Amino acid sequence: MQQEQADGREIVIAGAGLAGLAVALGLHRKGLRSVVLESSPTLRTSGLAFITWTNAFRALDALGVGDKMRSQHQQIQRLNVMSSATGEIVQEIDLRAQGKRGTHEARCVSRTALLLALEEELPRGTIRYSSKIVSIEEDGNAKILHLSDGSTLRAKVLIGCDGINSVVARWLGFAKPSVDIMGTPYPYGMGNVCVAGDALHPMTPDLGQGGCAALEDGVVLARCLGDAILGGGGGGAESERIEAGLREYARIRRWRSAELIGTAYAVGFMQESSNAVISFLRDNWLAGAL
């Protein structure tokens, strides 16, 4: 492990949250090892649970932990939407209905249980705890990562999954996200560096898609990067294939992220507005539209 780090052949992931562990597990399923740097001394288990929608379970199935989560969490059968003005039920939604891409699925999943499930599937030693990146330097195609404990790592790929205050995103020159205006997703990485999860698409919680989108990111990124490194069918040096793989990841996730950010903001704006017209639309149209 130490020799590989010194040679700069590591794929380094900053952050052991949902996105970081999903990327690491996706790469592991493709036969690629990574190192996950987590600033906390243990796995971050803050937060109780979150709604895990159909898209997230597709990602979990791709990672091989979907059935484990299903066995631990009951499926939500129905959703009743109530008017904030009258308290009446304005929409009843069957969450088991058949959709355009198959049967819908929604469960309230323990964040701790999901993180542990992802961690358990990773090779021992994949996560390095108490390891916070404080600065990043370039050395040819490699990135030199300076950690808070004084040690350094050389990485051939750096993936920032370290949240809305991402050190990696800041190094890439991205602006600090703001929740009081409708944002746009960050551009999609630079060379052999990219971001995923909240570092990529900070959004308001009004759609309940933050964690789900992070799992999507992990699967897509692992596929694009894994195919680029292992495939080699396109020829060229490995560094060129890595850049091409990350560009493909950016292409796939760019508009998906923009859609989620914009929709979450719009829904939140409508829910909090006291404007009479918007309130009428919210109570009579929004429930059905969602």
UniProtKB/TrEMBL annotation:
Source lineage: Eukaryota, Viridiplantae, Streptophyta, Embryophyta, Tracheophyta
Gene Ontology MF, one: FAD binding
Protein family according to the UniProt entry: Belongs to the 3-hydroxybenzoate 6-hydroxylase family.
Provenance organism: Oryza rufipogon
Chain ranges of the FAD-binding domain: 10-175, 188-233
Superkingdom of origin organism: Eukaryota
Keyword field: Monooxygenase, Oxidoreductase
Transmembrane segments: none
Listed Gene3D superfamilies: FAD/NAD(P)-binding domain
A Pfam family reported for this protein in Swiss-Prot or TrEMBL: FAD_binding_3
Name this protein carries in UniProt: FAD-binding domain-containing protein
Keyword Cell wall biogenesis/degradation: no
